[in-house]
Amino acid sequence: MPAAQAFLDIAGAPEPKVRVKVLLPLPAGNGYDYAVPDGMIVGPGDFVVVPLGPRKVIGVAWGDEADGSVPDAKLKEVVGVLDAPPLSADVRDFVDWVAAYCVSPRGVVLRLVMRSGSALEKARGKSAFVPAESPPLELKLTEKRRAVLKAARPGRPMTAAQLAKRAGVTEAVVRGLAQAGALRVVELDPDPAFDPPDPDLPGRALSDDQAAAVRALSQKVRASGFSATLLDGVTGSGKTEVYLEAVAEALRADEGAQVLVLLPEIALTLPFLERIEARFGAPAAAWHSGMTSAARRRVWKRVADGGARLVVGARSALFLPYTNLKLIVVDEEHEAAYKQHDGVLYHARDMAVARGARQGFPVVLASATPSLETLANVEEGRYGRVELPSRFGPAELPDTQVVDMRASPPDKQRWLSPPIVERTTEVLRRGEQVMLYLNRRGYAPVVLCRKCGERMCAPDSDTWLVEHRYTNRLVCHHTGFSMPKPEACPHCGAHDSLSPCGPGVERVAEEAQERWPDARVEIFSSDTVQHAGAARSLLERMTAGEIDILVATQAAAKGHNFPGLTLVAAVDADLGLAGGDLRAAERTYQVLSQVSGRAGRAEKPGSVMLQSYQPEHPVIRALAGQDRDGFLAAELDGRRSLGFPPYGRLAALVLSGENEAKLMETAQTLVQAVPHADGVEVWGPAPAPLYRLRGTYRVRFLVKTARRVSVQNVLGAWLSRVKLPSSVRCTVDVDPYNFS
Ligand SMILES: Nc1ncnc2c1ncn2[C@@H]1O[C@H](COP(=O)(O)OP(=O)(O)OP(=O)(O)O)[C@@H](O)[C@H]1O
Ligand SMILES: [Zn+2]
Question: Which ranges carry the Helicase ATP-binding domain (predicted)?
Fold first, then answer.
């Protein structure tokens, strides 16, 4: 004991308390000091229960030094340590990093990690039954009881329901036998570990290109240490086949290795999970927003204790508590769905790469239409590139034809042009399938009054209402507001005057059914396919050829293999080109190539038709000429000359509030405090395109900096100079994707 301390002790002063910094999954604060009571041991990463005001909350003992700002006398004590594996240093480091990058409080990022709150509670398993080792000597045996005893198996516990079903009796009979002592009750593990994937099951025979790509990726995996590699392959080239071999290599290299495969959307997961199971002989741990809380709890727990080695999930799977993550694959890396749009506004692809870089493991990004960000990284040598230049097997890429809608317009109140009608008729006659693609849900995007011209809007918002015929309602796609379609115009009172303008998928399906009355027409959109089961059944029918015409939004654009699909027609290829969005052209190009990529994936050749009013637009021209690289190079040049991402950094700062005057005043205060520095430009405030949403007004600033400048530091300095009133909310979006 140091001398000074000894002296204090003699003087009777209390020993300083042992402190720990605890981070709570809450927006406020950066972590608080707590006292560790005598006899309790709290290690870094331990989940602890601590008091917060009148409540008790679960937090994590963070590695930081306690800050000592609260005097001992006021320090509250840790209540207890949970019996769960500690959060690894890697995950804690990742939380810190994401928070700093996204200019977000650390607690909010920790909340992403702790989203499956129930995983930390003691779960009770279901009761199950096995034959008793020493059954009672005097047991009244009925026919039914005999059946149950015959069905029961030692070493294979079954629930009352399972056992009753096998024996063809009611559960009461099973329980009666347990009561009588002829069956023994055991508790099932509520969260069983996942069967380990077997990387050594034989994969498919690979083409030469595929085998070369597998060798290149496997080498990165074996090299251990960070690398980022773009797996750049045309649609249908077998990228999935290839990266699954890289996954196998990572699993093989380390018995405890965990691998994460990120997918942009849940609609993709079901067929994908079957593919995984076929390859590795065991299902992967799936993670997405549509899961039950029990399924969530199981995955979370098993990821935390290493009992889940292969995770397939949506973007939030990045925040599971891995203990030994060794590889991340980001499939369809260009997808905008990787960007989170509330809470912490992170981009899962970028965070995946950051995680690999910080923790020293490889990351594979797969796409047929890579993002400009990734391409720039490849060009500058930071990322590697592995290519698959052609489709697998005999399949060829579809040929693409642009229909100039000025020359071949559709009939009035119709949306399909004569060339598309003609080709569809031929294709259907051959017994093949057609996809009509239009990225617009509902029946009509706009509803107008024919008498007074009133356009139906959502109350308190600057958004138009979309007509849905399925439900016969008018729906706001931004706020979810909906109302029955009124009989009379709310503005002028005219009856039956509200008419739909323009097509949505429901209207195109209506036209298709009228034109081809014998065809089986179905709609694939988030309205018709609201849960994974519905998506699965629709995809299965399409694959089996039980649908002739699929009218689809973007939900069906990616990842699917429909062997009978030979014609893909984009009803409005120009949609998405309008609007001043930085990424409008890039995104339109990507989604149309993905949709086109659904055609002709098996033996029969496919074709693509794009209806366009501006066939000379660079995006449409690039699609028609299949000149992806030319288009992307031109886009990159454009971004470079303007200093936009990936050649500069961008962040949005959105102010919102219900009090418009206060909001404007705050915006002006921010203007006064705008940082002036070399390489920093600030634009705004400008009203957000949806200025009024649910009664809330929104204005935005855009901050653009040179690449060498940290946009986070600029934002931090700026915001620290201004005190925001409590009625105004401020959201920071680093690398914004959504400009609405
Ligand atoms: N080596 C192989 N042996 C057998 N079938 C293969 C092989 N490679 C690919 N395929 C088949 O070709 C089709 C396309 O493969 P896959 O889905 O992996 O391509 P992809 O490049 O991921 O496509 P997309 O980018 O369009 O989603 C699938 O039906 C797949 O089963
Ligand atoms: Zn009217």
Answer: 220-388
